[in-house]
Specification:
This protein is an alpha/beta fold and 582 residues long. It folds into three domains: 196 residues, Thiamin diphosphate (ThDP)-binding fold, Pyr/PP domains (Rossmann fold), CATH 3.40.50.970; 155 residues, Rossmann fold; 180 residues, Rossmann fold, CATH 3.40.50. Helices cover 35% and strands 16% of the residues. It has 21 helices and 20 strands. It has a six-stranded parallel beta sheet, sandwiched between helices. Strands 11-10-9-12-13-14 form a six-stranded parallel beta sheet. A six-stranded parallel beta sheet has the order 16-15-17-18-20-19, sandwiched between helices. Helix 4 packs across helix 15 and helix 13 runs parallel beside helix 20. The N terminus is likely disordered.
Length: 582
Amino acid sequence: MILPLADVQQNPRLDMASVKTSQQLAPVSVASVVVKMLEDMGVRYAFGVSGGAIAPLWHQLQHSSIQVLHFRHEAGAAFAATEAYFASGRPVVVFTTTGPGITNALTGLFAARWEGAKVIFLSPSTSTSQRGRWGFQETSAYTMPISGIFTSGSLFDYASTLECSDELPEVYRRLAKGLAQPGGFVAHLSIPTNIQTSLVETSLPRVTLSFATATASEETISECARLLSEGPFAIWIGFGARNAAAEIRQLAERTGAAVMCSPRGKGIFPEDHPQFVGVTGFAGHESVLRYMQEYRPLRTLVLGTRLGEFTSFWNPDMIPKRGFVHVDIDPEIPGTAYPSAETFAIQSDVGMFVKALLKHFLKRQSRAKTLLLPRPKRNAINPSTGSPVGPEVLMNVIQRIIVEGSDAVVMTEAGNSFAWGNHMLRFNKPGRYRVSTGFGAMGHAVTGIVGYALARNGKAIAIVGDGAMLMNSEISTAVQHQIPAVWIVLNDSNYNMCNQGMAMLGFEGINAKISQTNFVKIAQGMGADGIRVERESDIQAALEKALVSTCPFVVDVIIDSTQPAPIGSRIHNLISHLTTNH
């Protein structure tokens, strides 16, 4: 039986036994059954690069309701799948062929796991009779490490090699369970080529799933309210709180709490709100540390963030007097980043927790004190006719034309692009900004933007460096499927974070130069459009043209490489690592 998991994702308490009874199936191939399973699990997109070993599965995907996009590189397909999940809320399939197809995809799949996406990876393996004989791109225990790639662990929440069609019911049950649970889920199903074409002659048995969303008890909520009522507290928001924006704002305004956010949490709480003190961590705002040092909150309510290195740099100044009240759907997270700090840990869905907590804070406090909170500085720099373009000027124009003048989603790439975007761009709605601060792979935004724009069915804009653009680009894929992605390239002919960072660390004589590249010509050569910006006065017109373009578009900005990016906090943290054992 094939079960409509999409219904379970909408209502995790749904008893799937009541949805559809078991029914006899005519003999069909394993590949056909797997694809039908994926359709009923809510999959609408499959991204990948094909090959002979995956041919039966690929053929069935092409003849299903799932939209199949053939990418130019497997890592790009996996990055795009991650972002398509966050744009749509539906699981996304990544498919590859054997050998290098699998290993090429691993970086993107690691990113999916770290980001908390729901992705199902389909790969083939060498047929049993051919293993150990050095077949072309042989994928077996004779040629590749099995542990970690084909088994559950730190990369895959669930992984299995389907050696017989009799295993399908258990595979289906485990995939259904993983996708229905809250949080991310990255699975790997490897199917030998000969098994893909083997026949399934019996129906799959009925599967019953029932999940209740994790939430704290009333006793726990009351204790949290008591702790937070003992003195002034701050709220620290992460990406895991993205579905609780309205409730968090109510809580902040009722209590007068100062609010800060992780880089991935930008926009969940309006960045122009008088209670917002800034973004923490990498390229964050000095106003946050000033608040912690001068206002000294008694506790900090942490909502949906791991407080990892790029969010906190584990700075001891971020520890309040009496520690943290830390809420997360994953019980392993609270207390991990600051193990020596006092932490009241709660496993709960953030939205349900805050909604319950609001009942203990019904009266709105005076906002007199909140108006005096430290705020992030905004330096408006007017464009000039000068060349090259100052990155701060570019970000100011992006803020005005794209962030405030459109509904486009903005994604920043690992490196200086992320530093400038995180520090200078301001968002007032959740879901407008995306960045990878966990795995932080170069090429994530360059290719991920294709998946996000497709699933969103609207403009999505990636701010990237020239190094990332040269490393891994899917402009050709966007052109083929007419996906309205836009790339703004900070073209300074450098891996400039490396150049600037090494100099700040005191290492001289480092060469991370890149040959001057014309990204507009490259884009046009693949059928996209673009415009080159060499003067600050030309930025606005270029961005306006990109927004109205009906095809994939590249804005190639010749950027001033001498202006230091706001990466001081990262450098200070690196220095602490370098001197730890000295």
